[in-house]
Amino acid sequence: MAVLRGERRDPPPVWLMRQAGRYLPEYRALRAEKGGFLDLCYDPVAAAEITLQPVRRFGFDGAILFSDILVIPHAMGQQLWFETGEGPRLAPLLLDGDFSALAPDMAKLDPIYETVRRVLAELPSATTMLGFAGSPWTVATYMVAGQGTKDQNPARQLAYRDPAAFQRLIDAIVTATVDYLVGQIDAGVEAVQLFDSWAGSLAPDEFLRWVVAPNRAIVERLRVRRPDTPIIGFPKGIGEKLPVYARETGVDALGIDETMDPAWADENLPRGLPVQGNLDPLALLAGGAGLENAVNRIRNAFSKRPHIFNLGHGIVPETPVVHVENLLSMVRA
C-alpha cells in the first residue's frame, strides 16, 4: 500500500499474477475435491482458501482475490461455463452488440464479496488484500464472441461496423464494473487492479476510444465513490502507448507486461508513478541464471521508482514451486 501511494521500498513488495492456482499442489487437491473452476469462484469458503494458499506458503505481500473477469458478463445476464482444456464460454453471443435481452442479476456477485470478508478474517495484517476486474474492452471481446479469440476479430469488427452499439455495451460494462469494484472495496479490498489482457490488439484511435476512455471512466467514478482506494491499470501488450495510458486514465499505478524494456518504461513513464511487474513468466518457469539475470535487470531499472515486483502476466501452471521460492529469495535479498 505504501508503494501504491508513491513510496519506494527496498526490497520491493511482491505478489504474482495468478499466484493462487494450478501450479500449487494444494490448489489442485482442493479443485479435485470441489469441482469446476466456476463453482470455486462462487464458493466463498473454497475461494477464500485458494486466495490464502500462496500467502501461507510464500508470505507474499499481497493477496489477490481468487475469481475471474467473466463474472461481470455472467451477472449482466450471459450464461457462463468453462470447457475443460478450452477455456470459458458465454452465451448468447453478442455479435451485433445488442444485450437488451439479457436479464441482469448482480446478486450473483454477492458470494465474491463474502470471499473477501472471509479472506480478511485470516489474512495477516501486513498483507494487502487486492481485488480486481476485467477492463471493459477485454470483457467485451468475450461477450461478443462468446469465447476468447486469437485476434479479437468479432469485437473489433463490431466496433468499426456499429460503434454506437458497441459503445452501449462498453458503457454497460463500465457501470457494472464500478459497482462490482465498490462492492469489493466495501467488503474490505484495499486496492484494485483493472486487467486489460487484449488492450494491445487495437489500432491507435480505437485504443483511445475502447481502452483509455472506459478505464478513465472507471477511475473517475471510483475516485468519487471510494476515493482512498488505489487503482492499478494493467493494459497488456500496448507497448509505446503505455505513457498515454498512464496519463490519460489517471490510474495510481501501472502494471507492465514482460515484452516491455523496464529501462525504457522507467525513462518514459510519468516520474514517480508506481509500477508493477514485469518478469517474464517463462523466466520463472525456466529458473536458474536466466531468472536471476531477469530479476536483477528489473530491480536495477526501477531502483529509483516505486515498484511492486510481479510477473508480466500470469504464472505458468507448470512452474515448479521451488522456482517461486528462489524468486522470492532473489527479490528480498
Main attributes?
333 residues, alpha/beta, two-stranded antiparallel sheet, globular
Chart the SSEs and their pairings.
Blueprint: H1 25-34, H2 37-41, H3 44-58, E1 62-64, H4 71-76, E2 79-83, E3 87-91, H5 110-122, E4 128-134, H6 136-145, H7 153-161, H8 163-187, E5 191-196, H9 204-225, E6 231-235, H10 242-249, E7 253-256, H11 262-268, E8 275-279, H12 281-286, H13 288-301, E9 307-311, H14 321-331
Parallel strand pairs: 1-4, 4-5, 5-6, 6-7, 7-8, 8-9
Antiparallel strand pairs: 2-3
Helix pairs in contact: 3-5, 5-8, 6-7, 6-8, 7-8, 8-9, 9-10, 11-13, 13-14
What does this structure look like?
With 333 residues, the protein is an alpha/beta fold. Helices cover 48% and strands 14% of the residues. The strands form two sheets. Strands 1-4-5-6-7-8-9 form a seven-stranded parallel beta sheet. Strands 2-3 form a two-stranded antiparallel ribbon. β2 (79-83) and β3 (87-91) form a beta hairpin. The chain is globular. The two termini are 21 Å apart.
